[in-house]
């Protein structure tokens, strides 16, 4: 089963104060770190919500669900069965992430943006986005009966320069 990895990088980074994807950690951008962490779990990786990457669906500003819809749309058109999504600030991932989340649909309970989403849910997600209903990740997960997976992994969540500095020291 082919998996498309999707780095969700279209947020405004208001709390962070600058483009979070380009923030430096250990001499590399957060985007580079996430790409390296996600690639072993997928057949291909795309960046969503940035120039040169995949666009959010149906338009920017729809939050993580718009990014996941854009990734699922691309996955469907290129013959992938599912999308593994991660936020651009999650520079570390569990080594067994794909196994933890299989079978799809499933997400990490501690960070619902980290999820495995089958292409088959694209229609349901598009309907939700078009209605501009509750656009929370957990609302979508409930709607498609996705499993919330518990694990000991605590995903990094970088919302400020202080968070980035703490991560650099860990």
Automatic annotation (TrEMBL):
InterPro entries: MobA-like_NTP_Trfase, Molybde_CF_guanTrfase, Nucleotide-diphossugar_trans. Pfam families: NTP_transf_3. Residues 5-104 form the MobA-like NTP transferase domain. Keywords: Cytoplasm, GTP-binding, Magnesium, Metal-binding, Molybdenum cofactor biosynthesis, Nucleotide-binding, Nucleotidyltransferase, Transferase. CDD domains: MobA. GO terms for molecular function: GTP binding; metal ion binding; nucleotidyltransferase activity. Gene3D superfamilies: Spore Coat Polysaccharide Biosynthesis Protein SpsA, Chain A. GO terms for biological process: bis(molybdopterin guanine dinucleotide)molybdenum biosynthetic process. This is Molybdenum cofactor guanylyltransferase. It comes from Sphingopyxis alaskensis (strain DSM 13593 / LMG 18877 / RB2256) (Sphingomonas alaskensis).
């Amino acid at each position: 089963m082919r998996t498309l990895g999707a780095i969700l990088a279209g947020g405004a980074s208001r709390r962070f104060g600058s483009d979070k994807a380009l923030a430096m950690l250990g001499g590399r951008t957060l985007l580079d770190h996430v790409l390296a962490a996600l690639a072993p779990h997928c057949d291909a990786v795309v960046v969503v919500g940035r120039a040169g990457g995949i666009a959010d669906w149906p338009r920017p500003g729809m939050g993580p669900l718009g990014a996941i819809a854009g990734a699922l749309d691309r996955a469907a058109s290129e013959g992938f069965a599912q999308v593994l999504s991660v936020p651009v600030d999650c520079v570390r991932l569990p080594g067994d992430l794909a196994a933890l989340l299989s079978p799809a649909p499933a997400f990490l309970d501690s960070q619902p943006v980290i999820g495995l989403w089958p292409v088959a849910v694209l229609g349901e997600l598009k309907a939700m986005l078009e209605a501009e209903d509750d656009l929370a990740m957990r609302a979508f997960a409930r709607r498609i009966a996705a499993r919330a997976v518990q694990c000991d992994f605590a995903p990094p969540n970088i919302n400020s320069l202080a968070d980035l500095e703490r991560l650099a020291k860990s």
